[in-house]
């Protein structure tokens, strides 16, 4: 990886960590398309690895707002669907993974923009967990289904619960990827190298997350997802 590529990736990771730390979502939506454009081989291990320390931090910071019931149902469904996500990864040709990430990102963003307000129940939790298990294991992008479920809940609840669900799921997905030979240690190394950029973005989010208009921030993330997803599909 060239110095210029690494610098672009570091800036992207810092910006994405700030956005997710402040709004509760957006890291994978921002990083996965950019990483896919720079080096499709980074997906999904790089994104999954980078998100672990970020979600650990956010879950701890917002722990008093955690929705334990919702997190439990989502996590159970997400873990059940993880092997199917691995099968999806095997089924997608390596050269097409970027296009799949882009298409999934655009679709999720469009759905998130038009879905009406609702109060989530067990069915919504289970459905979000299954879809997240499929998409996050295969591509590193799993936030949109959880955002759909919690987008009308208090910002603290969204941030805490999404972070906790991500944390468990990312560890499970990485373990399965490496056990089956689909993970590259080098991709984890790039994520560790960019920890300072991740920490900087997360720290900056701490300064604004209580004052930020969560609706506007989520709208920004979804618009960015549309643009980056289209760019990723066009570049493959």
TrEMBL record:
Domain of life (superkingdom): Bacteria
Transmembrane segments: 40-60, 72-92, 98-119, 160-182, 217-235
InterPro entries recorded: TM_pro_TauE-like (IPR002781), TSUP (IPR052017)
Keyword terms, alphabetized: Cell membrane, Membrane, Transmembrane, Transmembrane helix, Transport
Main location class: membrane
Subcellular location: Cell membrane
Name assigned to this protein: Probable membrane transporter protein
Similarity comment: family membership: Belongs to the 4-toluene sulfonate uptake permease (TSUP) (TC 2.A.102) family.
Membrane topology according to the record: Multi-pass membrane protein
């Amino acid at each position: 990886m060239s110095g210029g590529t690494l610098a672009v990736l570091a800036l992207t990771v810092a910006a994405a960590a700030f956005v997710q730390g402040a709004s509760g979502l957006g890291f994978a939506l921002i990083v996965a398309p950019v990483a896919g454009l720079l080096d499709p081989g980074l997906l999904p291990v790089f994104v999954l690895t980078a998100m672990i320390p970020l979600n650990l931090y956010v879950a701890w910071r917002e722990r008093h707002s955690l929705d334990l019931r919702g997190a439990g149902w989502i996590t159970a469904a997400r873990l059940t669907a993880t092997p199917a996500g691995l099968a999806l990864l095997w089924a997608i040709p390596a050269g097409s993974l970027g296009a799949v990430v882009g298409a999934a990102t655009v679709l999720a963003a469009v759905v998130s923009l038009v879905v009406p307000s609702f109060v989530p129940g067990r069915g919504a939790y289970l459905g979000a967990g299954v879809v997240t298990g499929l998409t996050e294991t295969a591509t590193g992008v799993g936030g949109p289904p959880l955002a759909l479920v919690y987008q009308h809940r208090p910002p603290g609840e969204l941030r805490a619960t999404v972070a906790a669900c991500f944390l468990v799921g990312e560890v499970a997905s990485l373990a399965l990827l490496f056990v089956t030979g689909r993970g590259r240690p080098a991709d984890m190394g790039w994520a560790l190298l960019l920890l300072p950029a991740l920490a900087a973005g997360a720290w900056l989010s701490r300064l604004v997350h209580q004052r930020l208009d969560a609706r506007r921030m989520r709208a920004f993330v979804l618009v960015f997802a549309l643009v980056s997803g289209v760019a990723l599909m066009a570049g493959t």
